[in-house]
């Protein structure tokens, strides 16, 4: 529905609610009558503009059953409209409306009750549909697993002191041994063990006299000479005879032994100058 199709009472109520187009319809509808009423004024357009500015100021206090035509003529100072009615051209209406636009109150326009009710009903319907949906989603959402938290006491780190290194013991004083004049004795390489040879008795005149005077010593020496025999390929040989043989002499195995010559040489030799081997041969002779 257009504003031009509404009645003056509806447009007045809309203008009081803050709708400027409704007041513009009242200006377009009753402007020619107001201009005809002030035709005798020096400036009828300015007088018409002043009437609508005054009506705009009185608009909030006007009752709903106010007759708009009579209200505007009363502001113009007349109760009747002389004939003929002079219409307003488009330029004149625009000039009057431009002045009304600057004088229009800058207050907040009140909301319509119908729109407020519609918004309230829509909010209730949306809330009624959202509550069951939220309940279903809450039931389908699995519960989160509980997380176990373990508390551990905070232990201050112990300061480990560096161990004190023990002082090194003093080294003992020593001296290198001096080189001796005698060369070191070398160890003999291992070899086959041979029985030790009987040591030659020391030529002692006293011991020879003792052996001559003591018959028991002669028997003992005889036993010793028997033990000094050495086994050879030709037969037993006395140890003294082997030692007294010079290394360059070669004795034939088949040569006969000169027993008488040996006996005479042994007998003729003095007793003190006889060697152990000679003494043994003399005693046996």
Automatic annotation (TrEMBL):
It comes from the Bacteria. This is Uncharacterized protein. Residues 170-285 are annotated as: Disordered. The keyword Membrane applies. Residues 186-195 have a biased composition (Pro residues). It comes from Egicoccus halophilus. The chain crosses the membrane at residues 118-138. Keywords: Membrane, Transmembrane, Transmembrane helix. Residues 245-254 have a biased composition (Low complexity). Residues 203-229 have a biased composition (Basic and acidic residues). Residues 255-265 have a biased composition (Acidic residues).
